[in-house]
Amino acid sequence: MKFLEENDKEKYKKFLEGHERCNFQQSLEWAKVKDSWKSEVILSLDDDGNIVGSLCVWIRKFPVFGYLMYSARGPVCDIHDEKVLKDLRDGIDELAKKYNAFAIRIEPDIKKDDEEFRSIVTKLGFEIKDDSKNFKDEIQPRFVFRLDISGKTEDEIFSAFHQKTRYNVRLATKKGVVVKEGNREDLKAFHDIMVETGKRDDFVIRSLEYFQRMYDELVPGGHMKLLMAYHEDKPIAGIIPIIYGKNVWYLYGASSNSHRNLMPNYLLQWTMIKEAISRGANMYDFRGVSGVVDENHPQYGLYRFKKGFNAEFTEFIGEVYIAYKPLMYKLYKISEKAYRTLRKIKKKIMSK
């Protein structure tokens, strides 16, 4: 086990992009986007010095509580190789000692029913919290839709969509919706529409500066796109997909209150799926939905929209963690929940 050094960075990037469990949130580029956190990468090496496992850990100091360590969508390795996972656990312990951290919190993209992984990490001293259902209970969405596009043609993918989804894609084209790739200057229009979306759907949005930082860190390496939908030369919707390794993630989407009847979001998704197919990608990840599949749930419309593309509804294992200071971590979790509640109340008051 070792920690990533400057001369390891290209080797690590190559390992990450080539691994079947590649995730953009484990990348050095994404760590720069999250600049309010310090990042450290733990590497597991074989006898020849080749990287066989990794975990990108973000570290941040919170007032009162101290340092929290967090990893989104790691580890990147054979998740059933106990030796490699033990190596990464040893690295976590070293970081915890270095920063006097009160906990490590990992949210892997590993399916809930992977009993072998559960058994190994439990043996290594991790605990698992896997009872959340709400879309906002965890940092990363626990429930997602994933579309397998490996080795498939556009016709095969499109014909498997729900009939209503195919109709809406065609309707958008028929009604004159045009999708264009945007540049950095177009982020302002995207963000304006995102503000409109956030007010309508009741969620907190990122700042324009955040999207600009994403653009600056990810676009030069070909890891991000901005696609905008126009009607009569007016921007009416947009999406930001992330491309890393053999996978594509739909990360952000926005649509104006007007022109929603033109179904621009359907055409935007299909446009990016086609590009993912042309790139030879294995998977198109639609990201989060609620785990409560109920027509009366406020997030059911999002579930129905993503389900229409014939993607697989996937439940991840949840939070895998070690509480080095159990009481402090419990108090932190209580404060985190309270903060989210207060932020939501404040947003409602400000919108009146």
Give a summary of the structure in a few sentences.
With 352 residues, this protein is α+β, with helices and mostly antiparallel strands. The chain has helices at 9-18, 28-33, 82-99, 115-123, 154-159, 163-174, 187-201, 208-218, 264-278, 300-307, 326-351, and strands spanning 2-3, 38-45, 51-62, 66-72, 76-77, 103-107, 127-129, 143-148, 177-181, 227-231, 234-244, 247-255, 283-289, 312-315, 319-323.
Features:
single chain; 352 residues; alpha+beta; eight-stranded mixed beta sheet; seven-stranded mixed beta sheet; 11 helices; 15 strands; globular
Describe this structure in words.
- By secondary structure, this protein is α+β, with helices and mostly antiparallel strands.
- The chain is built from 11 helices and 15 strands.
- The strands form 2 sheets. Strands 1, 2, 3, 4, 5, 6, 7 and 15 form an 8-stranded mixed β-sheet that branches.
- A hairpin with a 2-residue loop joins strand 10 and strand 11 (234-244).
- Helix 6 (163-174) crosses helix 9.
- The longest helix has 26 residues, at 326-351.
- 39% of the residues are buried.
- The mean pLDDT is 94.
